[in-house]
Design a protein that fits this description.
It is a single chain. With 205 residues, the protein is mainly alpha-helical. The chain has a domain of 116 residues: 2-Layer Sandwich (Potassium Channel Kv1.1, Chain A). It is built from 8 helices and 3 strands. The protein has a 3-stranded mixed sheet with strand order 2-1-3. Strand 1 and strand 2 form a beta hairpin. Helix 4 packs across helix 5 and helix 5 packs antiparallel against helix 6. The longest helix has 35 residues. It is flat. This is GZF1 protein.
Length: 205
């Protein structure tokens, strides 16, 4: 009688494998490739494992699969126009699946990921840039909303000016005649208005 198949799966094995490979690289054990990086006169060499680089980078995979023969105990790969700090961060990422970089280096890490054809690093950089952009947009939106709230709570200058102008106009109409000062009606004259005697006569009667 056949028994049912069961799945034996370790959740920690991939992490343990990466950690062990990382420790081997840091100690220089079983490393079979040396990557020389040079940028603007600054040069550095990094030892690593072909299998790890080939599994995480299509660029290195093509290089290792197409090499004719071994140069010696280790294969040498030369990379130009790649900064030393960026390649060190790239190696840390492919060996640990994480790396901490400054915000202004995210774009450079994306460029090196595209240059070395590392899909995992490219996707990680894209996601991080998306989060950074969304964070900036959210801050701008909150700032804009706070500005609008302040403007709505404070009286509008135009409304204040209009109300003041209306008040001044009403005061002028109450204190001053409608005719302009230079009109003949407002000029001093020795003549008596024809209405004056009639008013006086009414008062006398």
């Amino acid at each position: 009688m056949e028994s049912n198949a069961v799945l034996l799966e370790s959740k920690s094995s991939p992490i343990n494998l990466l950690n062990e490979m990382h420790q081997l690289r840091l100690l220089g054990h079983l490393c079979d490739v040396t990557v020389s990086v040079e940028y603007q006169g600054v040069r550095a060499e990094f030892v690593a494992h072909k299998a790890v680089l080939a599994a995480t980078s299509k660029f290195f995979k093509e290089v290792f699969l197409n090499e004719k023969g071994m140069d010696g105990p280790r294969t040498n790969v030369f990379l130009n126009e790649v900064q030393v700090a960026d390649f060190a961060s790239f190696l840390e990422f492919v060996y640990t699946a994480k790396v901490e970089v400054e915000e202004d280096r995210v774009q450079r890490m994306l460029e090196i990921a595209e240059k070395l054809k590392c899909l995992d690093l490219s996707e990680t950089c894209f996601q991080l840039k998306k989060q950074m952009l969304e964070s900036v947009l959210l801050e701008l939106q909150n700032f804009s909303e706070s500005q609008n709230a302040e403007e709505e709570s404070s009286p509008q200058p135009s409304i204040l000016l209009e109300s003041k102008a209306a008040a001044v106009a009403e005061a002028d109409q109450a204190d001053c005649p409608l005719d302009p000062p230079d009109s003949p009606a407002d000029r001093p004259s020795n003549r008596v208005s024809p209405e004056m005697p009639a008013t006086k006569s009414k008062e006398k009667t």
